[in-house]
Amino acid sequence: MHCPFCNAADSKVIDSRLAAEGSQIRRRRECVVCGERFTTFESYEMVMPRVIKSDAKSEPFDEAKLRRSLMHALQKRPVTQEQIETVLSDIQSQIRRLGERDVKSRTIGEIVMQALFALDHVAYVRFASVYQDFQDVEAFRRQIEQMQQRETKLKLGKSCPI
């Protein structure tokens, strides 16, 4: 680690502690050249897989795009920012747990739909209408009926994929 005071290339670690609820390590360092002390923080970097679009083109995963989609579906819904952040984090964790370098956009859409179904049914239908490209009112009706059937199955304790 370069010293921020004299730019020397070497420093020694004096103290290490967990920070940010265990997701970072705080290190107290001392420059071996000038003797100045400074603090660094280390955290892990999780690489998200690339997204394979329906036209077979590949693009990097874009958290901002996911956030915009969720915010659009959740607009004017009684959902807190904390709930949104939790859902975003959960969706990204599920995508990482797939263990793939490339993930189809369809798979990501299904994960988002599952998360929205659990969070807010109106947002779920909004997202589904765009994601599944509803062309008429009948498509909305079918989606709502399917959603009600799933909800009934869930209440009866039966497993139900989205």
Q: Structural class per helix/strand content?
A: alpha+beta
Q: Low-confidence stretches at least 5 residues in length (pLDDT < 50)?
A: none
Taken from the alpha-carbon principal axes, the silhouette is elongated
| Helix percent band | 40-55%
Share of residues in strands: 15-25%
Mean pLDDT across all residues, rounded?
Answer: 89
Question: Could you give the order of the helices and strands?
Answer: EEEEEHHEHHH
What does this structure look like?
With 162 residues, the protein is of the alpha+beta class. It is built from 5 helices and 6 strands; from the N terminus they run βββββααβααα. The strands form 2 sheets. A 3-stranded antiparallel beta sheet has the order 1-2-3, with no helix packed on it. Strands 5-4-6 form a 3-stranded mixed beta sheet. A hairpin with a 5-residue loop joins strand 2 (24-31) and strand 3. Helix 2 packs antiparallel against helix 3 (105-119). The longest helix has 19 residues, at 137-155. The chain is elongated, with a radius of gyration of 23 Å. The protein starts with 10 loop residues before the first strand and ends in a 7-residue tail after the last helix. The mean pLDDT is 89.
List the helices and strands and how they pair.
Layout: E1 11-19, E2 24-31, E3 37-43, E4 50-52, E5 58-60, H1 63-73, H2 81-97, E6 102-104, H3 105-119, H4 121-131, H5 137-155
Parallel strand pairs: 4-6
Antiparallel strand pairs: 1-2, 2-3, 4-5
